[in-house]
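Team,

Forwarding the record for the chain on the shared tracking sheet. I've put the sequence and predicted structure together so nobody has to dig through attachments.
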Amino acid sequence: MIDVYTPSVQLIGHMVIENLQSANTHPPEWKRRWINRRNRIFANPAFQKWASALWPFSRVARKHASHLFDLVAGFTYSQTLLAAVEADLLGLLAQGPSDADAIAAHCDLSRDGALRLVRAAAALGLAEEVSPGWWMLGERGAPLHANAGAQAMIRHHKLLYADLADPLALLRADRKAQTQLSRFWQYGVQGNDEKASAYSDLMAVSQAMVAEQTLAAHDFSRCRSILDIGGGHGAFVSAVAVQHPNARLGIFDLPPVLEGTAKRLESAGLNGRVTLHPGDFFHTPLPTGYDCITLNRILHDHDDDAALALLKSTHKALKPGARLVIAEPMADTPGAQGMGDAYFGLYLWAMNSGRPRSIREIGAMLQEAGFQSWQSATTRQPVIASLIVSLA
């Protein structure tokens, strides 16, 4: 847990900004020479042959070769994952041992097709052959089967896979052409109720993961009132309501989205406890009177100018000393670097809006938006979300 009401916090944002300002310097000559020399050695076939035959270098060589092959074969891994989820292979294997005939019938495949799928899934740890010809969930398949949000994102990734079929064409389009992902996320511009509902359903099932990380990393007990900007169908607010039953809660989102929110809150027994504020946060003033505002997976969806404008609007809606909590996957996160610029960098490019930002970059934007201080918090699963808490 973190508490932003500590004296040291006032200095943290400014220290990081100073480091950021000096970050864009040309690499020193010694570093350039060292990296060039290292790369020449690693690329030398004779060195590769020598390293692969001599312990302990052979272990390192095999590890690097395996990682490189994973990059080459990564698309087939993701497609195996997608097929296992869409065919409900994990659901079948969770019920107990299944043979090829049972898998074929359940997944609507031939026996040979079923064997090819379950063996591929086993190679990735999703399934496990518990005795010859009999399969159950594997060590990676078990937690995935229990995670509805992760499965929803895997199904959603069909749009991303289509957009990345020709990655250079996607990059050269420079976000000026329609994509599968941009069409999906344009529900707000088009005012399409069906698209808004599909978007909110996806966010609701996956937002539970973000809520879990956020509530474990930050103590909201000092917040008497909490407003979730872009809160969708209320997954985050519902989680907050359980832990903090006395807090006054609000959700701000587009009118088509909030039409479904009211029904979900009523079914959760929260009708009347959560105030719904319809509007567009780029054109509608944000509600005031809340001593905490949350932005859960919102900021990285927007380009810099729009993201900064949102932070300024948020600052304007908060009284001095009130807090803003930002939770989203962030670039340059230790232990989750691939999630940042490799995954979200291309995902948001295909979406035609937004980019992953590091903690330092968001801190600089917070300072420009007028916030007096900020602090980051380590979450249990940074691949899902990292946290920044700022005081207005």
